[in-house]
Specification:
This protein is of the alpha/beta class. It is built from 28 helices and 24 strands. The protein has an 8-stranded parallel sheet. The protein has a 6-stranded parallel sheet with strand order 15-20-21-22-23-24. Strands 3-4 form a two-stranded antiparallel sheet. Strand 3 and strand 4 form a beta hairpin. Helix 18 packs antiparallel against helix 19. It binds glutamine (GLN) and zinc ion. The site of zinc ion (ZN) has 6 residues, from loops. It comes from Pedobacter steynii. Pathway: Amino-acid biosynthesis; L-methionine biosynthesis via de novo pathway; L-methionine from L-homocysteine (MetE route): step 1/1. InterPro entries: Cbl-indep_Met_Synth_N (IPR013215), Cobalamin-indep_Met_synthase (IPR006276), Met_Synth_C/arc (IPR002629), UROD/MetE-like_sf (IPR038071). Belongs to the vitamin-B12 independent methionine synthase family.
């Protein structure tokens, strides 16, 4: 039995790579300095895995920005618009970063390549661009260089390469008239060339990541898989090829995956433990099975006893020679090192005992191998005992379990997830109370979080300013924002969210059952990292969370102030979630906490309350067959949070970056009185899904893009609103920006909103 790893986090345990990249981009360090920082990170990662005792250590899992972009550069899939960058600069990294981030220098203004979510994670990759006359050629030697660098340290690494079929499927055809899968014949020779070089350097194992083998694919894709791996096998009869799948089970692709002429197949037994039996029943002789047994996507300590039962089952069937042990997927999605969490206040010692980050997960894999031996050594057995204690402590800890909350969740009824009356009746009740004009204007919640506002929070956290001082600074900022909104005539005001660091963290900090790390960073894209909260226990709201600021804002004005909350699905989606109960149960606990907040706001006299759910779509399972089940509980959780109020209280929700066509029925089922969506970049096209569906409730299609400082003209917004009005009845339409304004500056925010209000007035005057 051998251990291996599918990939190690590359940001560095103190985000060294982020810092070095950003310094390089701003011209503060040289390319040589950046490259040496990168090298020290991947060398450290290799040594750490070597010292831990991992048998097959990955290389080419490092990346300065993104591993899929690395592959595009490697195979020369470089869109033509970057030719000029290549001419201006003779270093490969400038071209690489231009593809990642765009290039505005030396009189050039070239857009970046598109970025999108990596399967169902919060990591974003750079989408390969394919053209009809697409050619591939070996352009970058990164894969071989890293293999050689590891070899110099005495490590015969296992290069990790995105497989040819998945690479093509991850890309996008940028013109019509061809199918990206047909490019496989042109692409494969470059892969062959890379393998030839690796072979010449002495590579023994190569890992091809083929996540699409665990997704819904068509027959053409299946044929492509057969073709690719048969060709590779033909050319390299002795190279050991491992095909890695993750995030889902093989399911209907099981026979295909098992028929590929490769040496080893990796399966994700954390996401889909039930596939083990099927695989063991059907696995052909000779094929080695890699058991993805340590969760690469979450932060919980592995349950050794449970894992050992799985390993044993596999050994009984295959013999230990045909087994590889590994994390379920690349550890890219785990924070680096739990040992760095030394602050007892943020992460108490008891909770810390339940966790494992990347470095600890590597150790877990190694210990599991030791424990799988016929007579494990004392050291391993001691670790098993220790592990059993931690697991037992977690399953019974008072910190986690709250009988009252469990009771409350299990007695949720259908009625709890339903407003008292249907929308048609609520609409009238709300109109009577709210007295809003046609085309009412509002914003999505946040106003600019200036450097000043952020510095108050930083100083407050360090104890440099008192709570009273912090409070009065925020009050002043809130009051100015309220006054300004009144002045320009916005109909539904917001308080501005100045007291919030982040839309999930702010709530997590006030809810029981949440914990935070100091250094638990995970790469989101490029140099951007996120630090998700840890939901470790039953969630419960000890006190109101937003009433203070919302009521304060409302006390300043006779206009309507909208309360602002983050929805249960989004809080769940952007956290590390406990694995000892279904996600749906955790989500319902959060939903009840938000529901209580909603009723508290109502009791405080707030008549409009927004519950943001930007992450509802990204929670969709990878396999379509699982969509309805997810949507059922996710939509229900939202409704639980929203349904504790009277008919006349108006509930808004907000979603961004979404396509709605395939889930429009579920969005309608959420039954929010008003939904605001991002729309301007698609020129209102996203609205078609609502129009075709005859969406009955009210909609605020975003009329300007808040991601850029550009100020749209009134005419432009009138044109967009006219377009909206052509497909949605006027009395259903709201006028608002695409999303929150917290990343914007005040000058452009003011000009844009003044123009937006004018656009709405013009439309209602024409009615
Ligand atoms: N209310 C939040 C804000 O305005 C919504 C953010 C979001 O949709 N991501 O910042
Ligand atoms: Zn948004």
């Amino acid at each position: 039995m051998q251990t291996h790893n599918l990939g190690y986090p590359r940001i560095g345990s103190n985000r060294e790579l982020k810092k070095a990249c950003e310094q390089y981009w701003s011209g503060n360090i040289s390319l040589a300095e950046l490259l040496s920082k990168g090298k020290s990170i991947y060398e450290q990662n290799w040594k750490l895995q070597q010292e831990a005792g991992i048998d097959l250590i990955p290389s080419n899992d490092f990346s300065y920005y993104d591993q899929i972009l690395d592959m595009s550069l490697t195979v020369g899939a470089i869109p033509k618009r970057y030719n000029q960058v290549a001419l201006k600069s003779n270093n490969e990294m400038d071209l690489y970063f231009a593809m990642a981030r765009g290039y505005q220098k030396d009189g050039l203004d070239i857009t970046a390549m598109e970025m999108t979510k990596w399967l169902d994670t919060n990591y974003h990759y750079i989408v390969p661009e394919f053209y009809k006359d697409q050619e591939f050629k070996l352009f970058s030697n990164k894969i071989v260089n890293e293999f050689a660098a590891a070899k110099q340290l005495g490590i015969k690494s296992k290069p990790v390469i995105i497989g040819p079929v998945s690479y093509l499927l991850l890309g996008k055809e940028k013109e019509e008239g061809f199918d990206k899968l047909d490019l496989v014949k042109r692409l494969l020779p470059v892969y062959i060339q890379i393998l030839n070089e690796l072979k010449a350097y002495g590579a023994e194992w190569v890992q091809f990541d083929e996540p699409f083998l665990a997704l819904d694919i068509n027959d053409k894709t299946r044929e492509a898989y057969k073709y690719v791996y048969a060709e590779i096998r033909k050319q390299f009869p002795y190279l050991k090829i491992l095909v890695a799948t993750y995030f889902e089970g093989l399911k209907d692709n099981l026979a295909l995956a098992l028929s590929l002429p490769v040496n080893a197949l990796h399966i994700d037994l954390v996401r889909c433990p039930e596939q083990l039996d099927e695989v063991l029943d059907a696995i052909p002789e000779q094929l080695i099975l890699s058991l993805g047994i340590v969760d690469g996507r979450n932060i919980w300590k592995n349950d050794f006893e449970q894992s050992l039962a799985i390993v044993k089952k596999a050994i009984d069937k295959l013999g230990s020679d045909r087994i590889l042990l590994a994390p379920s997927c690349s550890l890219l999605h785990s924070p680096c090192d739990l040992d760095l969490e030394t602050n007892d206040q943020t992460l108490t010692p008891e909770i810390k005992e339940w966790l494992a980050f990347a470095k600890q997960k590597i150790d877990e894999v190694v210990v599991l191998k030791a424990l799988s031996a016929e007579s494990p050594d004392q050291n391993a057995l001691a670790k098993l005992e220790y592990n059993k204690k931690a697991i037992a402590n977690r399953s019974t800890s008072k910190l986690i379990h709250n009988g009252q909350i469990k009771q409350r969740v299990s007695s949720i009824t259908t009625k709890d997830a339903q407003r008292e009356n249907p929308f048609s009746i609520r609409k009238k009740a709300q109109q009577d109370i709210l007295q809003l004009p046609l085309f009412p204007t509002t914003t999505i919640g946040s106003f600019p979080q200036t450097a000043e506002v952020r510095s108050w929070r930083a100083r407050f956290k360090k104890g440099e300013i008192s709570p009273a001082e912090y409070d009065s600074l925020l009050k002043k900022e809130t009051e100015e924002t309220i006054r300004w909104q009144e002045e320009i005539g916005i109909d539904v005001l917001v308080h501005g969210e100045f007291e919030r660091n982040d839309m999930v963290e702010y709530f997590g900090e006030q809810l029981n059952g949440f914990s935070f790390t100091k250094n638990g960073w995970v790469q989101s894209y490029g140099s951007r990292c996120v630090k998700p909260p840890v939901i470790y226990g039953d969630v419960h709201r000890p006190a109101a969370m937003t009433v203070y600021w919302t009521a304060y804002a409302q006390s300043l004005t006779n206009s309507l102030v909208k309360g602002m909350l983050t929805g249960p699905v989004t809080i769940l989606q952007w956290s590390f979630v406990r694995n000892d109960q279904p996600r749906s149960v955790t989500c319902n606990q959060i939903a009840l906490a938000i529901r209580d907040e909603v009723t508290d706001l109502e009791n405080a006299g707030i008549k409009i309350i927004q519950i943001d759910e930007p992450a509802i779509r990204e929670g969709l399972p990878l396999r379509k067959a699982d969509w309805q089940n997810y949507l059922q509980w996710a939509v229900n959780a939202f409704k639980i949070s929203a349904s504790g109020v009277k008919d006349e209280t108006q509930i808004h929700t907000h979603m961004c970056y979404s396509e709605f066509n395939d889930i429009i029925q579920n969005i309608a089922d959420m039954d929010a009185d008003v939904i605001t969506i991002e729309c301007s970049r698609s020129q209102m096209e996203l609205l078609d899904a609502f129009a075709d569906f005859k969406y009955p409730n009210e909609i605020g299609p975003g009329v300007y893009d808040i991601h850029s400082p550009r100020v749209p003209s009134k005419e432009e917004m009138v044109r967009l609103l006219e377009k909206a009005k052509a497909v949605i009845p006027a009395d259903q339409l709201w006028v608002n920006p695409d999303c929150g304004l917290k990343t914007r500056h005040w000058p452009e925010t003011k000009s844009a909103l003044i123009a937006m209000v004018a656009a709405a007035k013009e439309l209602s005057a024409n009615e």
